[in-house]
Structure formats: structure tokens, C-alpha cells
């Protein structure tokens, strides 16, 4: 069982291994709510996962450590296990989905672990890790469905209650449920009146679906760039704890997650991975009843693959009306592009790309399509530009 004593013991064990991360008031994110960010993305290894892994490994006997440690992870738990095992003199083998970001794979290796890439998602990597455990006698460090791991993650709840005693609500990302189980348990033990809300990616909503059905379900597939919470089946321990201690669970879309990442970069100068940004997305897009409340969003990790960061930023810009592309049917004659760009400039837009298409079989021989990319302020400005172009006689192809 998870107990408050265990959580306090984990906090003591972690004192010299994990950072007590800052709780930052976000004036630029606060609108109808008072938003604070629990910056676990600035934790050692870039994620909260170190807390649970380190505490769990600290509880192993010397014989267990000598037999080796095995784990499965999409990346963040892997780094926590690798660091803790290496620090305590144990060999670690980490099974990771073959789609895990290269940056997380390399970071795990750099921390001293042997990495085994497994085709499929997290659950496939878990099945392979169980097989290796049975073959080698190594100790499995589960990423979420373990009392000691949950107690380690619960130290975040202790820190939040110490840093903001009058908090009204805490919003926590959910993958398998270890983080929210620990945080919710600690928070509710210290103040049962504080609301704890969970957030999942809409395309990986196993805990959300399980809660609605009243039993743990297994999704056929998960498909989200928030790879840290792409879990098909929630934990059995964590499902029971979520049912008992979590007030509600909501989901957010891929576009909403991308917008939250962009907002954290632009307004808070913080890098969050998709899994880490879902809590902020839920607050930004009004998914929860937090108006007028003091709210903590747990930003659970910052290990985003730099290869997709630019795409995520672009997606966030498009979602918020900051970037758009227009297709305009033109007569192929001199001065047309000048006329279009002049109107865009007068409306305050900035042209960033131009492409003429003359080979489309659906257009007249003397016509062309103009694809024009723009930086804009918001959707209102986009509509203003479209309106002015139409007034000038240009035909926008929707």
C-alpha cells in the first residue's frame, strides 16, 4: 500500500538525488484563473520519473541490485532508472518502443543503461521486458504500477502543498497513472478539499475510458506525439487510486497540446514535451471548472525530440491563427502578385512563402494558382485579409 509515511520517506531519500522543482506563477497564462507551473521539466533527467525510479531502487536489497535491473519506458522512466541504477552500482537494461525519440534513447545509454528497442508501443516493450525479467532474474522497475514508484511521484504533491498551501486545484498529466496517483494521494491526505484533475491525450485516453467504463480497459492503438503518455492500458494499482482520489479526467487534442507547448516557449521560456504540456492545454482551453481558482499545472517533462519541435511549433502557430496559407486563383499576367502582397501588407500580414502552380488540370490555360504563406496576428486578421482580397476581385480557393 501507498502510505503518507512512504511518501515522506521517499522525500527524504530523494533529498540529494532529485531537485525540489520551482513552482512558478504564470501571469501570462493566468486569465480567469491564477495559474502556477510545477516545473518537473527542469528536474534532473528532464522529467519527474527520476523520483519514483530512484526511491524504488533504493528499497532493493544488495542481492537484487547484483542480479540487475530491468525496465520498460518510452524514454523518461528509462533515464530515471538508468541514473538511479548507475548511481547505486547496479546494471540496468531498458526496453523501449522502437518509435521512442532518438534523443531519449541516446540519453538513456549515456546514463549507463543497455537499451533494447522493441517494435510497437509501450505495452509491447513491457511484454518484452517481462520476458527478459523471467529469463534473467533481474528486478523489474515498473514505470507506474508500483507502490514505491507511486510514493516517489507523490513527493511532488508534498512540494506543491508546501509551496502553495492555499492551492484550489492541481492538474496532472496521465499516461499509466503513476504520477497522478502519487500526487493525488499526497494532496488529498494533506487537504481533501483540493481538487485533483487528470489530463490525457485524446488519442491515447486509456485512463479516461477506463474511468467512464468503471474498469481498466485496453486500447487497440494509441497515436499521439505526446509519447510519454501513450499507454494502451492503465495500471491496476493506479486505476484504483485514480478512482478513489482523482476528481475528474479530461482529454486534449493534438492541436491543443501543440498550442500549449508553443505558449510555454513563447510566454514562459520553458520547453515542455507533449506529455508535459497536456495539463497546461487543459487549463488554456477551458476543459476544467477552474475559473477564479488557484491552480497548479504539473509540467511533467521537457524531453521533446528536437526533430519534431519545429513541426509542433508550426502546428501551434496554425492552430492559433498565427500562420496560414491562402490559395488564390489568378489570371497569369504581370502585377497580380504585387496586388496580392500589397493588400496583405496593408492589413499587417507578413508574406513568408510564395508558390505559383500553373500545371493544375482544373484551371484555365491562362490562369494559375498562387499559394501564399503568411505570418498573422490571429484568425480575425486572416479574415480581414481574405475580405480585402475579395473586395479587390481576387478569388480565394477554400
Please give a structural write-up.
- There is one protein chain.
- This protein has about 400 residues and is α/β, with parallel strands linked by helices.
- The chain is about 45% helix and about 20% strand.
- It contains 15 helices and 14 strands.
- The chain has a six-stranded mixed sheet with strand order 1-2-10-7-8-9, sandwiched between helices. Strands 5-4-3-6 form a four-stranded parallel sheet, with helices on both faces.
- Helix 4 (about 75-85) links the parallel strand 3 (about 70) and strand 4 (about 90-95).
- The longest helix is centred in the middle third of the chain and has 17 residues, at about 145-165.
- It is elongated and about 80 Å long.
Defining key terms:
single chain, 398 residues, alpha/beta, six-stranded mixed sheet, four-stranded parallel sheet, 15 helices, 14 strands
Describe the secondary-structure layout.
Blueprint: H1 4-13, E1 23-25, E2 34-39, H2 49-58, H3 62-67, E3 69-72, H4 76-87, E4 92-97, H5 102-110, E5 114-118, H6 122-136, E6 139-140, H7 147-163, E7 169-173, H8 178-190, E8 195-201, H9 206-213, H10 236-245, E9 248-252, H11 254-268, H12 274-284, E10 294-299, H13 306-319, E11 323-331, H14 336-346, E12 350-357, E13 367-375, H15 379-391, E14 395-396
Parallel strand pairs: 2-10, 3-4, 3-6, 4-5, 7-8, 7-10, 8-9
Antiparallel strand pairs: 1-2, 11-13, 11-14, 12-13
Amino acid at each position: 500500500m501507498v502510505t503518507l509515511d512512504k511518501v515522506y520517506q521517499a522525500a527524504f531519500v530523494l533529498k540529494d538525488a532529485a531537485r525540489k522543482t520551482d513552482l512558478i506563477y504564470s501571469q501570462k497564462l493566468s486569465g480567469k484563473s491564477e495559474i502556477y507551473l510545477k516545473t518537473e521539466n527542469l528536474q534532473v533527467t528532464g522529467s519527474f520519473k527520476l523520483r519514483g525510479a530512484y526511491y524504488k531502487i533504493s528499497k532493493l536489497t544488495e542481492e537484487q541490485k547484483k542480479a540487475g535491473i530491468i525496465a520498460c519506458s518510452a524514454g523518461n522512466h528509462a533515464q530515471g532508472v538508468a541514473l538511479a541504477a548507475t548511481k547505486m552500482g547496479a546494471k540496468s537494461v531498458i526496453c523501449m518502443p522502437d518509435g521512442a525519440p532518438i534523443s531519449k534513447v541516446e540519453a538513456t545509454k549515456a546514463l549507463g543503461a543497455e537499451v533494447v528497442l522493441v517494435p510497437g508501443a509501450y505495452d509491447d516493450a513491457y511484454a518484452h521486458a517481462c520476458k527478459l525479467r523471467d529469463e534473467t532474474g533481474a528486478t523489474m522497475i515498473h514505470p507506474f504500477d508500483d507502490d514505491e514508484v507511486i510514493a516517489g511521484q507523490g513527493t511532488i504533491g508534498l512540494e506543491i502543498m508546501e509551496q502553495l498551501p492555499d492551492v484550489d486545484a492541481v492538474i496532472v498529466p496521465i499516461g499509466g497513472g503513476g504520477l497522478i496517483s502519487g500526487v493525488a494521494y499526497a494532496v488529498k491526505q494533506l487537504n481533501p478539499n483540493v481538487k485533483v484533475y487528470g489530463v490525457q491525450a485524446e488519442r491515447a485516453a486509456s485512463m479516461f475510458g477506463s474511468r467512464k467504463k468503471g474498469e481498466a480497459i485496453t486500447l487497440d492503438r494509441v497515436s499521439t506525439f505526446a509519447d510519454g503518455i501513450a499507454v494502451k492500458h492503465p495500471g491496476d494499482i493506479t486505476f484504483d487510486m485514480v478512482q478513489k482520489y482523482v476528481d475528474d479526467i479530461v482529454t486534449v487534442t493534438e492541436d491543443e497540446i501543440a498550442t500549449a507547448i508553443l505558449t510555454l516557449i513563447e510566454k514562459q521560456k520553458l520547453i515542455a514535451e507533449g506529455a508535459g504540456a497536456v495539463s497546461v492545454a487543459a487549463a488554456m482551453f477551458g476543459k476544467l471548472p477552474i475559473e477564479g481558482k488557484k491552480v497548479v499545472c504539473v509540467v511533467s517533462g521537457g524531453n521533446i525530440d528536437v526533430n519534431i519541435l519545429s513541426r509542433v511549433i508550426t502546428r501551434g502557430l496554425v492552430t492559433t491563427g498565427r500562420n496560414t496559407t491562402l490559395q488564390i486563383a489568378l489570371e497569369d499576367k504581370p502585377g497580380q502578385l504585387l496586388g496580392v502582397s500589397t493588400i496583405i501588407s496593408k492589413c499587417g500580414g507578413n508574406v513568408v512563402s510564395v508558390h505559383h502552380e500553373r500545371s493544375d488540370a482544373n484551371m484555365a490555360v491562362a490562369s494559375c494558382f498562387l499559394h501564399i504563406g503568411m505570418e498573422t496576428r490571429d484568425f480575425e486578421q486572416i479574415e480581414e485579409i481574405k475580405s480585402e482580397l475579395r473586395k479587390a476581385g481576387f478569388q480565394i480557393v477554400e
